[in-house]
Amino acid sequence: MGRLLRGAKDVRVLGGVKLCCVGPATSERLATYGLKADVVPGENRAEALVHALSDTGQVTGMKILLPHADIGREVIADELRKKGAQVVEVVAYRTVATDPEREGQPDVYRMLLEGRIDVVTFTSPSAVRNMVSVLGDEPAVDLLRKTVVAAIGPVTADAATRCGIETSVVPDKYTVPALVAAIVKYVETENDLAGQRAPSSESRAASREPRATL
């Protein structure tokens, strides 16, 4: 949208096309430009978007512009082409890993090693891969085994599994607010269970008292 608005035209050029978003966050962002999405799948996944588009009518012959990340999955383009659509792909943004040695960056390795991180969140498969790349394959598995790993959705959780990382939290809706809510619920449940397992002070005292022998 930024590139469009920096040019000679504006959002009116989109008046004759259908606008599709993969999830509610993208749809809300689109709305800030005064545009409403025509198609938003109920599930925030590429496969769901393909099904939602198919449900709107005949896909064969449809001309579709697909802006995406440089390392995103190719599910949408591939599946739409199988259905006969003409898909033009454009790299709209690039995902670049930060330099862990850059000044001011936290020492994540040491923080994990010392148990100072309670939850690690992943919001994309690339985030998982970049984390493993920074920590190393085996250290990543060992360090993340000591903390709670939360993934924004099953695709990201699957990427973690492929790296040998176990995921404890995956929300029902694949959005950041849903991920936060799922983490809060998980932590509260774990705390409640820990409280139930911990013996009371009276029971601990009783267990230390000698028992009578008949």
Structure, described:
44% of the residues lie in helices and 11% in strands. The protein folds into two domains: 79 residues; 90 residues, Rossmann fold, CATH 3.40.50. The termini are far apart. The protein has a two-stranded parallel sheet with strand order 1-2. A two-stranded parallel ribbon has the order 3-4. The protein is mainly alpha-helical.
Which features does this protein show?
disordered C terminus, mainly alpha, 10 helices, two-stranded parallel ribbon, single chain, elongated, two-stranded parallel sheet, Rossmann fold, 214 residues, 11% strand, 2 domains
Strand and helix map with partners:
Layout: H1 2-6, H2 24-31, H3 46-55, E1 63-69, H4 75-82, E2 86-93, H5 108-113, E3 119-122, H6 125-135, H7 137-144, E4 148-151, H8 154-162, H9 176-197, H10 201-208
Parallel strand pairs: 1-2, 3-4
Helix pairs in contact: 3-4, 6-7, 6-8
The overall pLDDT, averaged over residues, is: 87
| Radius of gyration from CA coordinates | 24 Å
Poorly predicted runs are: 207-214
Shape field: elongated
Quick structural overview:
44% of the residues lie in helices and 11% in strands. It has helices at 2-6, 24-31, 46-55, 75-82, 108-113, 125-135, 137-144, 154-162, 176-197, 201-208; strands spanning 63-69, 86-93, 119-122, 148-151.
